[in-house]
Write a structure and sequence with these properties.
It is a single chain. By secondary structure, this protein is of the alpha/beta class. The chain has one domain: 5'-nuclease (Rossmann fold), CATH 3.40.50.1010. The protein is built from six helices and five strands, in the order βααβααβααββ. The protein has helices at 8-15, 21-32, 42-56, 58-68, 80-92, 97-109, and strands spanning 2-6, 36-41, 73-76, 112-115, 129-131. It has a five-stranded parallel β-sheet with strand order 3-2-1-4-5, sandwiched between helices. α1 (8-15) crosses α2 (21-32), α3 (42-56) packs antiparallel against α4 (58-68) and α5 (80-92) crosses α6. The longest helix has 15 residues, at 42-56. The chain is globular, with a radius of gyration of 14 Å.
Amino acid sequence: MKRYVLDSYAMIAFFENEPGAQAVASLLRELLANRAKGYMSVVNWGEMYYSVMREQGLVEAETILSQFEKYPIELVDADQALTREAAKLKGSYRIAYADCFAAALSIKLNAILVTGDPEFRQLEETVSIHWIDLDAL
């Protein structure tokens, strides 16, 4: 069974109907049909929350978290081992620290990272990536 790690970029694109939203919707249907498993680092979950809160306010951020809970996406805590792997990525690449958690989780689970964030292009040889918005690249 395929495993996907969703980056905050992908989920925000979905919830805000931005470019790539349809690709994420298709993947979420796979999760709901139990044809794949979905994961997200709690760090990226927090990133999704604060990004929406900063742009649209607390009410919208809470609404998105409520919607998120409807999907079978397992939140994975940032334990010491995952944090160490994220830190190694941050030390090796010019990429946002929160993004390193998504990549580290993908590596740990041997899962496909779902994103549209061009920062991840530098990790294409390290992480399998499902790009949601190829026009942005």
